[in-house]
Structures are given as C-alpha cells and as structure tokens.
Amino acid sequence: LMSLESALLYVVWILEVILILAHVIVTFVYERTLVKKKVLHPNLQLLLMLSPAPLIVYQATLYLHWILDQFVKVSDDMDKWLGVVMDTGLFGTAFNLFGFVFERLIATLLVRRYEFISARIPFISLSVIAVQWAMAVAFIAAYYADWITLLPNLIVVGVEWAISVVMFSALPTISRRSYDRAMRNSTLRYRNRYQSIENIRTALVRVTMIAFL
C-alpha cells in the first residue's frame, strides 16, 4: 500500500499540475480573446498567441520526466537532455515581456511606418521570438557546459526584467506625448495621430498581461 507521505506527494503534484494547467489555459484564453475582440497588428497578435509556448515546453517536459521516472529507468543522457529542454523553456519565459516591449518600442519610434511594416507576414514578431529562443538556448547551453554558473543567468534575467518593466511603464507616456505633439503640429499627418492612439491603447492593454507573464 502507498504510504501517507507518498500519497501526500501525489496529491501535491496533482494540485500543482492543475494550477499550472489552469494558468496556461487562462493565459491562452485571455490572449485569444484579445486577438478576437481587438484590432491588433499581426506582430502583436503573434506575440500574444505564442507567449505561453515557453511555459508549455517547460511543463510538458517536466511531466514527461516525472512519468518516465515512474515507469521506466531514465538514463543519465536522457535525464540531461530532458533537463536542458525543461530549463530552456523555463528560461524562455523570462524573455516574454522583453519581446512585447521591443515590439511596442518599434511601434512608438516608427509611428509613420509601423502599420505597413510586416502587415501580412509579422517579420518583427518572428524575429523577436527567434531571438528569445536563441538567447534561452545559448544561456542554458553555456550553463550545462559549465561555462557560466547559475548566478549570471539569474542576473541577466533580473536586469532584463527591470529594464523591460521600466521601458514598458514609460511607453504609454511616450505615446501620449507623441500624440500631443502630433495634435499641435498641423504638418503631421492623421496617420501619425492614429498610430499614436493605437500605441497608447495597446500599451495599456499589455500592462494587464504583466501579471500573467
């Protein structure tokens, strides 16, 4: 018979699975609702839809590892590779906010041209996602190769988040100033004013996503 301690561990693990799955589902549904209910640029749509991907990779690998441990003997090589994939997914979640900040920064700086940049194919978001995964793979590979310790990785994540939060908080103000300047300057086209309003609206929407990220 299963001991009380083992039974409690199973209950805790099941509750953890339920909570994490609920988090992923709520995040995905919320972002899917944003994409359907709001008119957003294709770059932002793709970032919204793929933002849960790193967490899904992490959780799927974690549960696969646990299931394999219960039924088969996991070799050292497989254990290492599962750990690499799991840590890469976990580390990739740390760069989610930076991707949104970068996309909004481009939209803020390129007010006149942003609506026409990758309107059909979201090159900006594809590039951001590629860089996000490349950075996660690079840092985790360096860590497993003993080129760096865990501390530099944590410092990088902390600095990246601090910069992202500061920039993200400042973007609505920057967009408002851009809009006010466009309103005072009759030589600026209506497109500038429209894009400035869109930047403000989208930036405010993204603030609500920080809790999920």
Automatic annotation (TrEMBL):
Q: What are the transmembrane regions?
A: 6-30, 46-68, 88-111, 123-144, 150-174
Per the record, its GO cellular-component terms are: membrane
List UniProt keywords, sorted A-Z. Membrane, Transmembrane, Transmembrane helix
InterPro entries in the record: 7TM_GPCR_serpentine_rcpt_Sre, NRL-GPCR1
Pfam families hit by this protein: Sre
Q: Which GO terms describe its biological process?
A: sensory perception of chemical stimulus
Similarity annotation = Belongs to the nematode receptor-like protein sre family.
The protein, known as: G protein-coupled receptor
